[in-house]
Design a protein that fits this description.
Number of helices: 6
Structural class: mainly beta
Number of domains: 3
Number of strands: 20
Distance between the termini: 23 Å
Strand content: 25-35%
Helix content: 10-25%
Radius of gyration: 24 Å
Shape: flat
Mean pLDDT: 79
Largest sheet: 7 strands, antiparallel
Length: about 350
Amino acid sequence: MKKFSTAALLLALSAGFGISTMAHAQTATPMRCEFLANAPDQHVVVRGDTLWGISGRFLQHPWCWPQVWGLNQEQIHNPHWIYPGQIVYFDRASGRLRLGNETGGEPGVVKLSPQTRVQGIGRDAITAISTDAIGPFLSQPLIIEDGELAHAPHIVAVQDGHLNLGKGDKAYVRGDLGDATAFQVFRPGNALKDPVTGKVIANEALYLGTLKLDRKGSTPDEAHTFSVVDTKEEMQVGDRIIPRPVEPILNYVPHAPANSVNARIVSIYGGVATAAQNQIATINQGKNDNIDVGTVLQLYRFGKTIADPADHNKKVKLPDEQYGTLFIFRVFNHISYGLIMEVQNTVDIGDVARSPE
């Protein structure tokens, strides 16, 4: 089967979709975006499908999905338009994908406009990737930047006769709760250092469990009473609490970064030195570097510098080797969490995470 070049794809898409200039400029350099030689003619979307999985059926690189569909930035972050029962068609003549319905006759080009289907839109639309691997990390652990946890409410006492808190125990808290009633408990943890500069760029707080408010203090100097809902680690006096966030719905499109990225692996979650597929890693760039949720980066290992066998007085650097993919799913100002995908080697602290090529 003929492979379609990036230029051919963009030409076809420009004619058929009227792609926005933002969709053209996903990265600073052109990206290879080719269909698989054995790409199917169509795929019926079923419950449990993901955008990553579907795009991987048609494309050599799942992060090319926005290019093939001609999505602008708003549509990348709000892809409420593919549902179980719909069919993704591969139009080989034009080199593009179309979206239709099982009973809709001729497949039509997907309408990239506000959807009329509102009820259950987040739950019904397929998600970017499976939440199984990253679910626990959507609200934990917590990255502490600019000392923000220092001013959070804290546990001042525990239930009589207890050194640590377990499920069902009482905790007494001091601080401003706002209007929240459900809280997560954290303890300041590891300092995250930039592999390049050696400077601490953030701290990772250890997630301990959750509390629910039983009764607010009746006076400014009276502690609030909480019950422990669940524990991952034992809670103690001095631990900090923050309102429990609403877990986000993972509806965003895998996409290359808008700007050129050359980041480094800062840490592997769990305090280990190396990681494998489906583990979690952090990089030393975040919102302040225009990294956003859904960004896909390629993982590289630095090539060694060796002596030239023909001239030992000269050194030669071997090329950096690309060995995997990192899918960014949670972003802070200077740190981002990513799911390690499609790796052929271990991921080490200090490895490079770059824009796809």
